[in-house]
What does this fold into?
Amino acid sequence: MISPTKHTALNWILITLLIAASLVLRLRNLGYSEFQDDEKKAIIRLAEGETVKDFLLSQRKGPMQFLVTQAVLTITRDPRNELMLRLPFALISLGSIAVFYLILTKLFKSRLVAFIGTFLFMVNGLMVGFSRIAQYQNINILFSLLTIYLFIKLTETRKVYQVSLLGTTAWCISLLAHWDAIFVLIPFAYFYIKFLLRKDISRTPKIKITLANFVLGCLLLLPFLIPYIKTQVNSTANMEYFDRRVGVSEYTWDKHKFIFELYNPHVTLVFLAVLAFFGLLNIKRHPMLIVWFTSNFLLIRYFMEKPGTHIYNYVIPAIILAASGIQFLMKFKNTFYVALLLPIFVLCVFLYFQAYILFVDHSKEYPWDTNEILTTKNIVLQTERYKGKEVLTFGFPHYRNWKRINEIVASDPDKCTYITNEGKEISQIYMDNKYGIMENRPCYYIVDVARPFITRGTGAVFAKVQNKEPVYTYSKDGKTLVKLYKINTN
It folds into this structure.
């Protein structure tokens, strides 16, 4: 029998291996890509006369991501430093891997199941993509998972006050990162009810603990939520945004499948679906997982009008359900260890390699370029270019040297403006000069971007650049990706 000390040490060795493997996917080339619009929105940018309080209350999500980016900017004072702004979010993502493993060990009582399940979580494209941007998702995922872990622990520990209060604090932090924290209410409630049904703790302490957690939740949330809700209700723009988000969804199943496969092409969906199917057969051991996944999926599928990458809220329980499927298969020891473990291992290695090619390696910029994941004599796995108009591309590699473009345009003594086929959402992050063609200016620049991040500008043609030499070009691997032209209006 393995002693408790050795058992704990082995868990931390496995967690260390998972995090070490994750370092490559989450930190390598982290500063390569330029910011996208949502990353700009994660920074406090005050309008004239606006206070920080007013800014935070006017946002469409809680304040946590702004506190993180502000902490970084207090040190770097450089809002265009992609690496430094993303780094804390990548580190938070690493923390979620450790917590995910601990959850699976509690649920399935198997280090092998926990290791494989956490590996599937670690290499999932949505988790990798989020880890490579400066935005709320990493905070939300970490503290939602921490909430689940702590309330699982509440069902077995004697330190019920400390653990429950920490669990409530974690959930409050998750909610203050994004309202997606509501999608862990089912496991939250399930394990709290299991705690209330414990026979080794009398009724009075349970009542006191429940009241203490309620009071703590109010103290942590209400000072922000009360003025926040008042501000939101009085904001026409934000209420219209809420109406666009919540309602009967017109997203088809094919659209959900498209988003998942944008981040996880080829075998991932089938692999998870097969394992999750066996997880369904494990219903007697883990009925909550099926209720959690089904509830999240149905709510997002039918009542979130434009879910986009918020599908991660049902992908996470789906991965845990897949881990439950592995636990079910392990009952058939000879079949599992002889016939199934090696194929599962090979598929996991492939998924890691695929995540590296899609998110870390930028020799081809997926999904704006076609990208060969694997080519053999009999197998060709190739991705298609992304042509959708909705911005769904988080964490993928995309670089067009906007800082150098800004230097050229900003240093022009004629004070030229600029236009571009890239979305203003991107260019205005880096450009100091004004956007547009203005009659009172003697010139303007045209920034012609090949395969722009915002795909609605793909294939744009500027008549003014015909037979004109660019003043600057940015090329990569022999291909010109940006042409900068100066146009005189006099």
Observations:
- The radius of gyration is 25 Å.
